[in-house]
Predict the 3D structure of the following.
Amino acid sequence: MQTRDPGSMASTDSAGAPSINSASEHGAAHGVLRGLFEEWMLAWQERRHTARVSKELLALYRLVAADHPGLVDRELFKLVVMKRNGCDSRAADSILESAEESFAQWPASCELTFCDVVHYLAVTEFLASHQREHWIHNNMALVVASHIPRDLCIARVKH
């Protein structure tokens, strides 16, 4: 037999224990489900954003490489960043340094790859557009690697 205190929304069974159908439990369950859905949607948005950025940067990389066949690696990445962000050489160098610090120095010091640059730009752009977020919920490297040719993702160890 269930009883309800007239001043409360909570139900209790005949032993006085809270009922599993209480309003507070329903609200808590709803809150948990809403939180899970929001996390899932945010993760989906991250993956979608990273896929789009990867495709855009790969297309830009191919255009810049075709226009400047003598450029390789960091100098080519620099021009891609300058065109993508509409920035000058100094700002592009700063972005490449940040990408290198984030992805090419640990666990071993490696040459910066195009995938590192794409990964860095995708994450920083996403976080800038979602200022409430302070971290990424996905392994963005996997999303980037699925859109960028493998030869642009292979890191060479620095000597």
Notes: The chain has a mean pLDDT of 82. The first helix runs from residue 23 to 67. The two ends are 77 Å apart (CA to CA). The chain has one domain: 38-152.
